[in-house]
Description:
Layout: E1 20-23, E2 25-26, E3 45-46, H1 49-58, E4 68-72, H2 81-94, E5 100-104, H3 107-112, H4 115-123, E6 126-134, H5 138-143, H6 150-162, E7 166-173, H7 181-195, E8 199-204, H8 211-217, H9 227-240, E9 246-249, E10 260-263, H10 267-279
Parallel strand pairs: 1-4, 4-5, 5-6, 6-7, 7-8, 8-9
Antiparallel strand pairs: 2-3, 9-10
Amino acid sequence: MFPIQYDEPVFRPPSEGNSLILQxxxxxxxxxxxxxxxxxxxxxxxxxxxxxFKDIEAFYPYADQIQKVFLADGDPMVLSNKRLVxxxxxxxxxxxxxxRVSAYxxxxxxxxxxxxxxxxxxxxxLSLVYVGIESGDNAVLQxxxxxxxxxxxxxxLNKSKQAGMDASVMVIKGVGGRKNSREHxxxxxxxxxxxxxxxxxxxxxxxxxxxxxxxxxxxxxFEPMEESEQxxxxxTFVEHLQLEHTIFRSDHASNRLVLKGTLGxxxxxxxxxxxxxxxxxxxxxxxxxxxxGY
Length: 294
């Protein structure tokens, strides 16, 4: 029998597959992004501290095995440090081999915390934040109702970096449609150049409830892109990146083309792989649609 009961559905980044998932909030406090259906079935609420501690204690029999913890759901960083710090301290006390605690974070919630507060969280073990910026282009951010701007994203990421936290930054290909494609690619690259995150990745827009459902949620018009156009958008994005030591992945299940490496040293290789995908879209180096998902 599993030690705890989750409030499902539960989501986590692919790289947290071997982590203990600890729900400290239910749902997402913002929950208005047009592209995201992850938490629309839930009403946001923070969990009681006593219940969180009980969940942590339930894993005591496995304490020596737990090395990574991911704080769920959508944006635990909306909580005050008064709530977060005791949880981090409890994790450190409970799991002697713990080496990383991570969480989803929005730029807005990073910006709302002072640098001193972020430093306090880092000192108590929160070392990695996953930040879905989706785009760096203000027009696209408005279209998808992200509630962010280019400036707010750069500010939030750089503040967390100043506190010593690593960031894993996610961009969604095709999210702005055909009209906004080039600006979306270039401005997203500019965000990464301005923040130099430790990790970066791309996903592909997938409308699992249908394109009409997605477009009805947008703040503006949208024209879907063909796959070849999405590859061209990715090429433009990579061409404009000026990264020094960022680990880059496009291996999320939504991607047809999988890229893995470090930017900038693998930039030329990535562009060559993208060009190959554009010229030969039916080659076996692309992920079959049957294996794709969100």
